[in-house]
Amino acid sequence: MIRPRIALLSNPRSTGNVAQLPRIRAFCVEHPDIFHYEVERADQIGEAMATIARVRPKLLIINGGDGTVQAALTELHNGAHFLDGAPPVAVLPSGKTNLIALDLGAGGDPVVALERLLALARTDLAPHIVARELIALSGGEGGSVPVIGMFLGGAGLADIMLYCRHRIYPLGFSNGISHVITAIAVILRQVFRLRASFLPPEPALLSVSLHRDGPLSGRFALMFVTTLEKMLLSGEVASRGSGQLKFVAVEQRPLSLVRAFLASLFGKLGDTKMVGVHVENADEISIDGDSSEVIFDGETFRTAVGKPILLRPALPLSFVRLAA
């Protein structure tokens, strides 16, 4: 009997899987060294991990969007299913944004990526393994049990992501066209300061503490915290300080937005100080506001009065990175 070299955890409801999952299932049938487990809800991932742990795979691949990856990482962190330590993790590009898959060099056709990962699993994985720091989110309305992820968007950025999700995606356009429409709406709202019901809302007031200096308060056109190295518009964000969490916030000023966009476009974000642009590294971040929403790897979390969202580093995990 062939022992599976790969455990593949799939979420059929992820956007990319609607079209690609039949091909992925067929590929798995042809390759018996892949153990394929499908879940449709986040509360099934604990049982999935317990079963996968008994298989003892050489590599765990997550086939879903960033929200599926977050749920799996949270279970790996909190569930203690793998007594000898969790296997390296890889991510297929199967959602709408796939920031985590992008960071790990997995883009394009998920079946092609799966084929490449299977070939790697049949050899020595060590040259392709990279350590990635993780973020533990607790507090807010969600309570104190930590949720594990790699990218949080808040303030105006969260508003933009929710606007795209609830107002643009339902129109039925492709992801690329949807993102272009959203970008135009953002420019009209945040750069030209137009106000209309069909545009994203005004960012809410937020107070952010990096537990180093005083709190940073105001309205921010965008804000994010991440441990990812590769972002959508730049190769990386420069580090400032010794903390593991990269924090970026841009105040609600047109010139600050333009400066930040150009710096990001050329991979220079954080290299020099700019008015209205805050780039810091920290080991603990709290986000406080009156029912303000943040998006943590595709899932929505909300602050509450007297219940800020707390971000801290979690134990790092090994991932398999494909060549970009």
Write the layout of secondary structure elements.
Elements: E1 6-10, H1 17-30, E2 34-38, H2 45-55, E3 59-64, H3 66-79, E4 89-93, H4 99-103, H5 110-121, E5 129-139, E6 147-149, E7 151-154, H6 155-168, H7 175-191, E8 205-209, E9 216-226, E10 245-251, H8 254-265, E11 277-282, E12 285-288, E13 293-296, E14 299-302, E15 309-320
Parallel strand pairs: 1-2, 1-3, 3-4
Antiparallel strand pairs: 5-6, 5-15, 7-9, 7-13, 8-9, 8-12, 9-10, 10-11, 12-15, 13-14
Helix pairs in contact: 6-7
Detailed description of the structure:
With 324 residues, the chain is α+β, with helices and mostly antiparallel strands. It has two domains: 6-134, Probable inorganic polyphosphate/atp-NAD kinase, domain 1 (Rossmann fold), CATH 3.40.50.10330; 151-296, Sandwich (Tumour Suppressor Smad4), CATH 2.60.200. Helix content is 31%, strand content 28%. The chain contains eight helices and 15 strands. The chain has helices at 17-30, 45-55, 66-79, 99-103, 110-121, 155-168, 175-191, 254-265, and strands at residues 6-10, 34-38, 59-64, 89-93, 129-139, 147-149, 151-154, 205-209, 216-226, 245-251, 277-282, 285-288, 293-296, 299-302, 309-320. Strands 5, 6, 7, 8, 9, 10, 11, 12, 13, 14 and 15 form an eleven-stranded antiparallel sheet that branches. The protein has a four-stranded parallel sheet with strand order 2-1-3-4, sandwiched between helices. α1 links the parallel β1 and β2 (34-38). The mean pLDDT is 84.
